[in-house]
Amino acid sequence: MKSITTLSILFVLFFTIKVDAQQVNSVSELKDYYHKSKKLLPSPDVGWHEVWIIMPKDKDFFNKYQKELMNARVFVEDDKITKVYYDNEKYVENVFGISKVKNGHATFEKVYLDVNYDLTEVFSAHIHEVIFKDHRAEVKTPLKKGAYVGNAIFYSHEKKLDKHGFFVFIKDLDTEEFDFLGYLKESNPDVSCENTQNLHVPLKHGNYEIFMVQNKIQFDRRMPLKKLDLNVQENECQPIELVIK
Questions:
Q1: pLDDT at 176
Q2: Number of alpha carbons in the 13 Å side-chain half-sphere of residue 223
Q3: Backbone angles phi, psi at 224, to 5 degrees
Q4: How many CA atoms lie within 13 A of 150 on its CB side?
Q5: Quick one: which of 62, 66, 20 has its CA closest to 41?
Q6: What is the pTM of this model?
Q7: C-alpha 236: how far from chain center
Q8: What per-residue confidence (pLDDT) applies to 91?
Q9: In what order do the strands lie in the sheet containing 225-232?
Q10: Cα(61)–Cα(53) distance, rounded to whole angstroms?
Q11: Which of 228, 216, 221 is nearest to 161 (CA)?
Q12: Residue 128's Cα: distance from chain center in Å?
């Protein structure tokens, strides 16, 4: 009888936490939920996972979503978050993982491109707090394949890519902000859809402005930078050579 009672209590507790999670509408509610259930939340391995993201409140942080709490999917590798996909976005954003995933919690920073008269700079800033949802089923890879989705395949014949690779950014034409798509540090002459050694970026079909920045400081304190216009067609793989001339 005692074991049945214990199981009943655990079931009620688990069910209550599940209900609380479904009713999270604010940061304060999420933090209260996390405080109660952090020992039960997953600390996932490599792959995509469903999360809540608490957006930074820093005065100089531009929050284009204008929400304090976002539903998203994140990619975890080496115990840190490296990619983020916000619901209904046109592409997956790469980020800089700060803390390791532990008790269903992790943090990351946004990667920025700053271009001005004095220098070109790539840096990370503004800590985003992540709470993993107790979602045990397999999470779909965002923008993997399907209607309205194409792929850009970035490659390069430049030498010493391991030392002087390329940061690839996309410009949000609505906000004029830059989002980080990935870093090319090795390349392969085979630019087919099947070869994953190059930098593959899935995007919803449409027109984009891409900025490639070589990881190489010049005498004028600038990093080599080049802009290109990209038109993505659905169900197509488009090779794009990264070269600074």
A1: 86
A2: 18
A3: -55, 130
A4: 15
A5: 20
A6: 0.87
A7: 22
A8: 95
A9: 178-184, 166-171, 206-214, 225-232
A10: 15
A11: 216
A12: 11
Q: Give the tokens for residue 123.
A: 């840096």
Q: What is the pLDDT of residue 222?
A: 78
For residue 110, what are the β-bridge partners? 95, 125
**C-alpha distances out from residue 168 to 20, 191, 199, Å:** 40, 17, 9
Find tokens 């609505």 and name the residue. 174
Residue-level pLDDT at 23: 67
CA separation for the pair 51, 61 (Å, rounded):
21
pLDDT in tens, 96-130: 999 999 999 999 999 999 988 777 889 999 999 99
Place of tokens 């933090």: 31
Per DSSP, the residues of 20-47 read HHHT--SHHHHHHHHHHHTTTS----SE
Residue matched to tokens 């592409």 = 91
- Which amino acid type is present at position 79? D
Q: How many helices (H) and strands (E) does the chain have?
A: 2, 13
Q: What is the distance between the alpha carbons of residues 208 and 231, in angstroms, rounded to a whole number?
A: 6
- The count of residues in the chain is 245
Q: Residue ranges of the chain with pLDDT lower than 70? A: 1-23, 145-147, 219-221, 245
